[in-house]
Amino acid sequence: MPASVQAPRRISLLLAYAAVYIVWGSTYLALRYVVEVLPPLVAAGARFTVAGVILYTFMRLRGTPPPTRRQWVIALVLGAFLLLGGNGGVMWAEQRIPSAIAALLVASEPLWIVLLEWLRPRGTRPSSRMLLGLAVGFAGVVLLVGVSGDGVTRVDPAGAAAVVFGAFCWAVGSLLSNKLPQGDLPKSAIATSASQMLAGGALLFIVGSARGELPLVTAAAFTPKVVLAIGYLIVFGSIIAFNTYAWLLRVEPPARVATYAFVNPGVAMLLGWAVGGEPITRMTIIAGLFIIAAVALIVTGSARSGEPTLTARELAESERVA
Question: Which of 35, 21, 10 is nearest to 264 (CA)?
């Protein structure tokens, strides 16, 4: 690969992973603030609809053509998996389980991706290094939750099941997005994100309304803290991080991209220390080292497993339209 392409690629990938690792790790606290006073699915629908409108308006002002009818259908399918099932499941669950437990359970996503990738027709068998990385990553997040302050935490079964189901849905959507033929997604990563947010946001609104959530939305719920949390989720969690995630799925192996699920619990714990005054113990540091080791194992394992990578021309094009 020419140096002129490789250098921007390396910088772009580092920034993209940093955004997904750090920003999405911080959203668990914001989600907690929102679901304390607002119904989860309607709140998630509003978040993604607003973010989708902003992105869609931006791309059209840039002259990017709108998605085709087929691309809208694909966006509806991906929005159902990623946003309705994935994010909606976590939003609903955070009413019933602590955010640290939710972050732990979301860490099952890389396992789902590796297993689904293995089981699909002509799938890729995970390397021993990747399997070891998954085991080490789970050990790290278990240590994080174990030292979170209250010892053994009782986990609501329905809440835990909702997060695991959400992680499974997110894994399915991520794999579909990565494996779709050229032309099923818009060339622009922004157009891809905007269409998925608009479609997924509409689905969240429909399902939330069917569950009777709309009458639960009151003006008194929109305190400054909640408004700030919603704004953070829209700008940073959706517009920045989700759009970055969509681009990463175009240029990186899904199992490698999914390593964010191991890092997010550590970020959530650090945020709890910085904002909530929670102590960081020696065991917390050890757990963080486990997670860093897991990321390194999965990244090197996916590189050795023979997963396809983009050519220099395709990479340059993906960076141009992102």
Answer: 21
